Each structure stands twice: as structure tokens, then as C-alpha cells.
Amino acid sequence: MSSDLHPSQLHQHLQMYTIAKWSFWGSLAVSCGLLFLGATQKPESKPWILGASVGVLEVGRRHRQTAKLLQESLGDIDTASRANFKAWARANTQPTAQLAVTVGALDANWKPENLITDPVEYIQKKQKHVALVGGTGDGKSTFTQYLSSKIGGRVIVYDSDAKPDDWSWIDQADVIGRKGNFKAIDTAMGKDLEILEDLVQLRGEGGDNAIVGRERFMIAEEFPILVDECDNSTPWIKRHAKRGRRYKQFICAIAQNDTAENYGLQGDKDTLYSCFVLVRLGQFGRDYARTKLKDPQLEQWLKAGGKRRFMVDDCPCELDLSNWGTTAQAPVQISGGGNDEAQSQPSAMNEYEQFILDWGQQHPGQVLKARILSQATTLFDGMQPDEVRIIFVSMADRGLGEVEGNGDRLGWRWSK
User: Fold this and answer.
1) Domain 351-413 falls in which CATH fold?
2) d(CA 408, CA 183)
3) Residue 314: what are its φ and ψ, rounded to 5°?
């Protein structure tokens, strides 16, 4: 084959092959010409002309045989020629240096134009629920805790994969489905649908005042597993998506993908985007900035901010704990559509809030810090300091004491 030959030998063989090939065709043409000439000559000349024609034809035959042997040693001449041309083209058109495309260092003062710092205000203005997209360690629990403290209402969690210390900031009786108990989740979701229908009747008969105190904030983890395991999950999310806000039933559905199918809304993408604010945490937010928004600078900005930066729909959001509680805020209540908002009453305190309140009343004027709580009781074991500070802010928002300081210095004290 041609690959076995030295380049100088290859060139020589190609020359020999070309000469032998054209010599064969030339001999054939000469032989045919002699035969045509012999047909017009005198009889005594024909044997000589015929002999010459046969001799020339024999020479051509031998050249033909030589060409075949050379072709076998060279391989497929056309294929070799194309391959050699491609190799030449690659060698002669290859750039002399690799082109490196990098995103320059992010300007420390750069901020996105459409930055939002209060996702709750954005969600309330949109009058939507929340579809939360995030992976392990992206801050889903912290965000949902913050969100529920601002939205208000009794918090109920559906989580089949919850560990003992997960959701420690709510009444543990309201964490449904531990140890893979999908039957309990399915039953509870069915009950939610009945409650929603009851609220429709109550509000229709007595107006907004008839449903005051029945506000609920429901968190559903592990979509789309819930869709596969719980028959009531799809009607649960569809009916609450379209009617829940009006009847003070807020839902936060959590998944690791932002497709409608993952939320049990197969073929109903419009419901996902019209009834939910999509919050993308961690890598999901950065991927969205890069692939959907085509904004590498935004991607770098999100990455530089860690957990405190994420995407809310198409808007980047920065939510820093150091800003929580620096100013007094009125509680944000679940509201329905149009102008039919009603004032919600504070929900009953859970055991964590009750312990904090009791401590404050026993130590009037003293500032309670997350560190002091961890030393005073084992009740808060497994709870991060940031989660404790969220409870402080939530209680202050409801008029239970007040906060002072900010960031990791934020504390709470009792005040009437």
C-alpha cells in the first residue's frame, strides 16, 4: 500500500504508473491505426503491417500489466490523492496559535440592569406561586424558609426524602412523607384538594373574611418523583396553580429541572409560566444565564455571589442576609387576584419561636444571638445560624420582638 512507501518512492511509483497507463492507451491507439492502414494497403504489405500492429498491442498489454502491479502497490490512487490533499490542507491552513476565548475578570462594581433584591415583592406583584429549581446544597431550605416567613400561613412540607434534621424550623407534624411514605403524601394532597373546594364555598358565601386564618404555605419536594408515585400530585399542582392564590393557598414546588413535565404539567407549559415564578438556584441559574439568556457576564456574576445570587424568571436576584431586618418591614400576606386582598392574622407559633419568645420574656432588654441559642438548648441542634436569624426576622415582622444588627451580628430581643 502507499502508506508503506517512502515519500521519494511514492513519487517515483506515481510517475511510473502514469507513464505505463498512458503508454498502454497510446499503444492501443497505434495498433488500431495500423490495422486501419493495413486494410487499405497492397496484399503483400498487409502481413508486415499486421505484425507491427500485434507487436505494438503486445507492448501496450505489458504496460497495462505494469500499471496494474503499480496500482496494487500504491493502493487506490484517487483515495490516496484525496487523503494527501486533505492532509496538506490541514497542515497548511492550521492556525499558528490556539485561539483562547475567555471571559475577562468580572468588574467588582458591575451589576445587572434588571437586578431585584426582594423576590417576595416580585412574586407578590406577579400574583404567582413558586417553582423552585435547585440541587443539593444550593440553599433550597434557606430560601423556602425565608419565603414562608414573608408570605405567611401555616407551613406544610411534602418530602419523601427528608432527613431527621431537615425542615427543623416548622412543626414536625407538618412534614409529611418521611421515609418514602408516598401514601401519606398522596392522602394529604387529596385532602388539600377538598380544603380548596371548601374554601371556594366559604369565600363565595362570606367573602374574604370567611377564610381569614386558613392561610397555608405548602412546599412539595422531589418533583417529578411525586408525579410518578402520587395520583393526586398532578391535580393538586394544577388546581392550586390556577386557584390557590385567591384562596390563600400558596404552593412552592421544588424540582431539579424546569420543564413542565417535571412538575406534572405534561403538555401544559402555559400553566407553568403563567402561574409560577421560576426561581433557579446555584448551577441551574448559571446555566440559564449562559444557555437561555446568552449572557456570560451574568453567569460570572452569579458564580461570584454564591448562594445569595440566583435567577428569578429572567431577572437576576441578590438576596443577602446582611440586609434582612435592617429596616422594619410590614408582614407580607398571601393575597388573591385583583383587589380582593385581606389582612391575614399571625399564625400560631411553633416550638422554636415559642422558646425564643420565652427566653426574651425571661431576659428583657438582652439581645439573643444564634450562638447563645445553641448553647442554651439542644432544640436548635442541626439548624444553621442563618436559619435561626431568619426566625428572628420573621418574628420581628409579626410584631414579636425586634431585631438589631445585621449579617452574622443580627440578633433579637423582646419588646412589647
Assistant:
1) Arc Repressor Mutant, subunit A (1.10.10)
2) 41
3) -95, 10
Q: pLDDT by residue (tens digit) across 179-231?
A: 999 999 999 999 999 999 999 999 999 998 889 889 999 999 988 899 999 99
Report the C-alpha gap between 69 and 403 in whole angstroms. 96
**267: which residues sit within 8 A by CB, 6+ positions away?**
260
Model pTM above 0.85: no
Q: Which of 362, 340, 363, 353 is nearest to 393 (CA)?
A: 353
Size of the chain in residues: 416
Separation between Cα atoms, residue 101 and residue 383, nearest integer Å: 43
Measured CA to CA, the distance from residue 382 to residue 305 in angstroms comes to 25
**168, 230 in Cβ contact below 8 A?**
no
Q: How far apart are the first and last CA of the chain?
A: 97
Contact 143, 135 (CB under 8 A): no
The packing angle between helices 77-93 and 46-74, to 10°, is: 50
For residue range 280-314, list pLDDT tens digits in order: 999 999 999 999 999 999 999 999 888 889 999 99
Structural domain boundaries in the chain: 2-93, 119-323, 351-413
- State the DSSP string of 321-354: GGGTTSS--PPP----STT---PPPPPPP-HHHH
Structural fold of domain 119-323 = Rossmann fold (3.40.50)
Query: What percent of the residues of the chain are helix, what percent strand, and what percent coil, each to the nearest 5?
Result: 55, 10, 35
Q: Is 153 left (phi over 0), alpha (psi -120 to 50) or beta?
A: left
Residue 402, amino acid: E
